[in-house]
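Section 3.1 - Work completed
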Amino acid sequence: MNKAQKAIYRGVNKLNDIVKITIGPNGRNVIIDRHNGSPLITNDGVTIAKEVTLPDRHENLGADVIKQASLKTNTEAGDGTTSAIVLATAITNQARRAIAWGHQPIKVKDALFNAARKALDLLPQYVRQIHKYEDLRRVATNSCANEEDGSLVAKALSRVGPDGLISLEMNQLGTTQLTFTNGVKLSGKVASPYLQTKNLHNAKILVTDGTIKSIQEILPLLENAIQTQSPLLLVADDFANEVITGLVLNRAKAGLQVVAVRSTAAADCAVISNATLISPQNDLTLPQATPEHLGHASQIIFDTEHMTILSNEKSSTFAAHIEMLKNELAATTDDYHRTRLKERIANLTATAGLISVGCPTEAATMEKRLRIEDAVAATTNAMRDGVVIGGGITYLKIAKDLNSKDIGERILKRALPAIYRQINRNYRFKSEDCDVIDAATVVRSVIQNATSAAAILITTGTIISNAT
């Protein structure tokens, strides 16, 4: 083994040593020093891994590859991020030994992928579907390591369902509360990075199915928003460049909280927020729009391709709009169009949960928010895909069914128990007494992503670095 490979493997194990203490219901916290704010206290594996930068650049490369397993698992399952790092490290170390014994790295990689596929084929026999509130509470409590918060998450999801919306915010009240409102997630992209924001609170909404061509068309509405200090969301099919420029200037100089979103879901946005759709079909043009035509939302949350609108002010035409969509659904024979209409109807009639997280200190609030966020993702996946016995026991069961004669299966057979062993180090328990349940999605994602990251490392033979 050359120096580059040794450095990579050292980095893998150093990252693992940092995050593995957080795994399981009794996992320890890590304090992250942030230069521009309060320290972040968390036991969320992916959050910790993101903050790790090893002093040795070559070691850091190895750590960065393993981080990818955690990041991908977080995206797919929302939980199991530490398990992904622990398993990826175990697979890497076992594969190193196999290569040292004379096995070819490429053949080991291929054998590992085959072994992972077999492991995933074995998983369904350990999965059971859940429907009861108590099962949801157990999954959520295991994920966020707090019974009270787990109960809150379970209550929210039992109300909105796996396809419903759960939004989180932080407050300064010192308490954590759950409320329900009408919530819709609509397609929509912020028109300029200079207008990007995470959310708007108590915002007014202008909705048009046309293009806003001139800042003059909406100037009275902008002036009203500045005077009333009301955040403003503009939803349109498109915006002229001069409009975007004008909005950016108003935001920078006048302090106007304004976001412009390009969206084809104008009609749905209008009925959910009680806005009047500015459209020729309503005999309205933009210069005629007044503050009375604006809708309202208690909160609007933005991501890359969507906006989530939370509002209890449905339009009086809401019922008629839903009936129109149902009639359109009954009349169409196109499968794609039928699917989209069903999604729109389900989306518009859904209930959304809002969990407002508060603790005595800012650091505690942020730590709690991260835990609840993980619990929401894990419990949602459990509702969709079922659950397995937690505590790392399902990994043990899968390992027992693998064939020790095949090099890939032998590596995975020896690596999978690492998760159970580390959880047991952090939280002593007997496997026969374990009543923890995990989302099956988490186990599937952990095995897939850990194997993929380890396979990259074992086929790496050198490093090219421009560092001086």
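Second construct:
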Amino acid sequence: MELGMKLQLEQKQELQMTPRLRMAIEMLQYNNQELKEYLQQQLAENPMLEQQEEQEWEEKLQDHYQSRGSYTNYAVNNNNQDSFESYTAYQPKLLEHLEQQLYEVLAEEEIAIGEAIIGNLTTEGFLDISLELLAQKEGVSLAKVQQILFKIQRLDPPGIASRNVKESLLIQLEAIGGATELASKIISNHWQDLSEVSLEELADELSAQPSEVLTALEKIKGLQPRPAEAYHNTQSKTSYINPDMIISKRGGELVVELNDGYQPGIHISPRYYELLSQSDNPETVKYLKKKFKSALWLIKALENRRMTLTKIGRALIDKQQDFFDEGIKSLQPLTMKEVAAEINRHESTVSRAIRGKYVQTPSGLFTLKFFFASGVGQIASASIKALIKEYIYNEPKDKTLSDNDIANLLQQREGLEISRRTVAKYRQDLNIPSSTKRKKWEPK
């Protein structure tokens, strides 16, 4: 075998990630808030960019909203009771949140016992029934109930369904992990007399340094004595969503527009452009030319983002016409590849463009990704969920529908072959309790 070195020319094509291309890709991925922050940063860094005067911008903003007519009055005039909620991120209640997690940790035959456990929680998140009585009611062994309780106590929030504060805190320490042995000893052996013993005395009892005990006490201080409180605190923080796109009906026709009227309007600064044209200083000219080129790229990238999103919106109107006319039940399965072919863009471009963005429609607020749904046959999964919701809301008052009943209805009425477990998963996604819970639950 001959070894040696030689020169060889090879011609090949590859994509070069130029600054201009990188900027276009980044801006396409930004949602409204991210884009606003990015534009403000660019305005601060590039003297060639200038924001429109406040008065001029306010006039344009006023014209923008007046031209939108039906949308500005949507929350007031629409009879849909969920019109306000459609602008917020829905947060499920604690019991719904826990019930949704049961299917992730419990076997099918354990679900009923799990539901019985979370159905006997106090408002603070403690278990309000003895395990012996629960085992007797469910007709299972005490060991089986203890096994299921162990799994539930490690759901979110950790420590839920504990019998007392000590048990809740120990489970939370377990969830934290790391060096928590000393903190566990304090809770297990000194919880009752913790307020009466000094730091030095506690250190002697535990054969530890006062500084180590103090660190352990700080860990305990950061725990939640009432396990449900951590979840309730999270629930109190409501997220308001500003849609990136609006699809509405005007004169019987569906139209799409971008909701970017509140973002800073930018253009080339006449003062710095004039300085570029008249300056005799080579360094100044070089600097301003670089900034001028960057400003042009930014403006073109903004326009490219606007055109791409608008085309995607129009493609959605074309592909999901039934949804906009009839609602979620008529959503069709759709892939990004189909939309990419429709707008003559690459599939990855569509994927970047819809990332983290929302669209306001006559049926409410949805993520753009919602419209790219898989499904069964010619029906999208969201449509199936809407049918399940409709069946449950219209179920007889004297007979709640089990997941198996719903699966049979979907087969009889829609010709859909869906398993009971899939129905249960979709029902959990909708935050609807099981049939046993719904006997005492009335939809609003």
